[in-house]
Amino acid sequence: MDQNDTMDWQKLYWEADNWVNHLTFYKDELLFLQRLLDRYFEDLIQYQNLDEIREEVMRFQDLKYTCNKLLANTREHRYQLALAIDEKDTEHGFTRRTHLGLQEKLQDFTLGFKTTKKEIQSITQELMESLKE
């Protein structure tokens, strides 16, 4: 592995490390949203469309699962990149294709996260405003 290859693998490592940081942040945000849903769930089902709430909660649960799985996969990928850099070896069972696949999954997850967060904030905000009145 020459100097440029090492720099390329290091770049991929730092990119994967950045993804881990973002996913950890998203995981914390999901925990906050879970607490928000738990706090207002009974009121939500009284004041909102039950089918809409059920659908949103299912999407939210899927998002939490995806986040955890993606975080674990990205940590493993980062670890494999570190091994390749340390051992000057690019044959550790992963490829740039793996990296690009994770990047695509992260982009899809981020879009789903933003949409779901917006929906949860919207329905809980409506509820909180109606409870004030």
**Net shape:** elongated
When the domains are counted, the total is: 1
Mean pLDDT: 86
Quote the beta fraction: under 5%
Major β-sheet annotation: none
Total helices: the number is 3
Q: Give the ordered list of helices and strands.
A: HHH
Total strand segments: 0
Radius of gyration: 20 Å
Q: Which blocks of ≥5 consecutive residues have pLDDT under 50? A: none
Helix share, percent: over 70%
The separation of the N and C termini measures 68 Å
Structural class: mainly alpha
Describe this structure in words.
The mean pLDDT is 86. By secondary structure, this protein is mainly α. 17% of the residues are buried. The chain contains three helices and no strands. Helix 2 (50-86) packs antiparallel against helix 3 (96-132). The chain has one domain. It has helices at 3-47, 50-86, 96-132. The chain is 89% helix and 0% strand. The longest helix is centred in the first third of the chain and has 45 residues, at 3-47. It starts with a helix and ends with a helix.
Concise synopsis of the structure shown:
The protein has about 130 residues and is mostly helical.
Defining key terms:
133 residues, 89% helix, mainly alpha
Can you lay out the helices and strands and say which pair or pack?
Layout: H1 3-47, H2 50-86, H3 96-132
Helix pairs in contact: 1-2, 1-3, 2-3
